[in-house]
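Changelog note: in this version the structure field was regenerated for every chain. One regenerated record is shown below for reference.
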Amino acid sequence: MSDDIDRIKNESWLNLGGDEEVLWWGNPSIIPYLPMFIIFFLAIPASGIAYYYTPIGVEVFAAIPIALALIGYEYLKIRRTFYVVTNEQTAYKIGIISRDTMDIPYHKVQHVSFSQDIPGRLLNYGDIIITTAGTSTDEKVFKNCPNPAHVKQELMEAKQQYMQGSQSQNNTPLDQDQQHE
């Protein structure tokens, strides 16, 4: 696991502070995409069978590189999407060539929830929904996140520890003396 943490720490898009630690990171679950992959893989032999048994020409074989390109693109998109939970923020990156990154400091996180449909519940994946304050869009989503209950718990614990640390840093010595009186 520490090799994985080191790998994500070295990603150029992830802006970590000096004392910031990566607590969890992951990619979207591949499970919800399996039906699409299966259909594309079945399209390859189906095009060969169609070519053999029908008068359709070579254009049927054009489906093979198209199917392989779509499978490859979707797989790369999944593997190049990262969700990260640190002790100071949560972050994500989506995209292969163009990319969308977002750092969400815990002081802006209002609420965290997750949702799972029936297949997600059975196969343990779902969406993490992070509601934020002071941003152009109120909800950020970790789509098809593996083990969403665990990730939500990690995120909430990290936020709670961050907020407790922020409150103790905001107390001046005078404030602490007044609390003991």
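Spot check on this record: DSSP finds six helices and seven strands in the chain. The longest helix spans residues 148-170.
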